[in-house]
């Protein structure tokens, strides 16, 4: 009799767990749909903006004045702008992205997280390429701009820098999670008299303050990088300010949406 009484609450517990699980799945689907709609709306706005800019001669003249003034004012920066262009070209950026993905895989030991990073890199760049094709805005009529074979809007180099920075920030995030997990595990083991304390991992900073400082500095430096790249593209005379400005706004949005959409279920 006692055994039968103890089994009665189990169906209710299973039902509650099922309801909670279904609620989480439904909430996840709503969030995913919202993210997709938001990303699509931003892409549509970018396309409309690009088509308007392509046909507006007044905006073209105003932006050309900015480009020429920036090139004259920052002429000494042109060699650096050329170096930046090489650094964020596909020839260099693709290996860098591969290295970042390799680090994410090594730290998380999760193919899913590595694929999440790959999607964060590939999907935004594919969308930027699609917008370039649709808008087909000519390059600025400068000595270097007329030599560029692909359309101007939006800036691919600026978008690439945002993607690389986003992956680097993702890498810092997973490293931070690994460090916290290792310290927590070491603390639990040291407090358990039946389990020997785990030896300190030489690859993990022993001072939380030092790691937080290093991560903060790297984060600030990384965030600055896309703005430097955007500025260099205007000074170099191969992009309009609105080209780089659109990439600075749209690419982080797309990367963040992919990051959230690929977030593992909890």
UniProtKB/TrEMBL annotation:
Keyword Transmembrane helix included in the entry's annotation: yes
Q: Has keyword Cell membrane?
A: no
List, alphabetically, the Pfam families matched.
Answer: PAP2
Check the record and name the SUPFAM superfamilies matching this protein: Acid phosphatase/Vanadium-dependent haloperoxidase
Q: What are the transmembrane regions?
A: 33-54, 74-107, 114-135, 155-175, 216-238
Q: Which UniProt keywords apply?
A: Membrane, Transmembrane, Transmembrane helix
Entry-linked InterPro entries: PAP2/HPO, PAP2/HPO_sf
> Where does the record place the Phosphatidic acid phosphatase type 2/haloperoxidase domain?
113-259
Its protein name is PAP2 family protein
What species is given as this protein's source? Answer: Bifidobacterium boum
């Amino acid at each position: 009799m006692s055994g039968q009484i103890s089994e009665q609450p189990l169906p209710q517990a299973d039902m509650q767990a099922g309801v909670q699980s279904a609620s989480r799945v439904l909430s996840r689907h709503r969030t995913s749909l919202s993210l997709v709609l938001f990303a699509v709306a931003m892409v549509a706005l970018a396309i409309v903006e690009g088509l308007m800019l392509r046909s507006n001669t007044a905006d073209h003249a105003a932006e050309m004045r900015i480009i020429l003034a920036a090139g004259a004012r920052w002429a000494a920066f042109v060699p650096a702008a050329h170096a930046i262009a090489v650094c964020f070209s596909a020839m260099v950026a693709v290996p860098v992205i591969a290295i970042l993905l390799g680090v994410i895989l090594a730290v998380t030991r999760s193919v899913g997280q590595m694929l999440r990073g790959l999607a964060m890199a590939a999907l935004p760049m594919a969308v930027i390429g699609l917008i370039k094709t649709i808008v087909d805005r000519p390059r600025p009529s400068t000595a270097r701009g007329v030599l560029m074979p692909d359309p101007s809007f939006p800036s691919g180099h600026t978008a690439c820098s945002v993607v690389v920075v986003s992956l680097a920030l993702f890498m810092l995030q997973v490293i931070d999670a690994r460090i916290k997990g290792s310290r927590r595990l070491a603390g639990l083991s040291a407090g358990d008299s039946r389990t020997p304390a785990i030896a300190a991992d030489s690859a993990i900073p022993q001072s939380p303050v030092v790691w937080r400082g290093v991560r903060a500095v790297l984060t600030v430096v990384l965030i600055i990088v896309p703005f430097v790249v955007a500025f260099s593209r205007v000074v170099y005379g191969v992009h309009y300010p609105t080209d780089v400005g659109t990439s600075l706004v749209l690419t982080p949005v797309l990367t963040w949406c992919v990051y959230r959409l690929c977030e593992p279920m909890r």
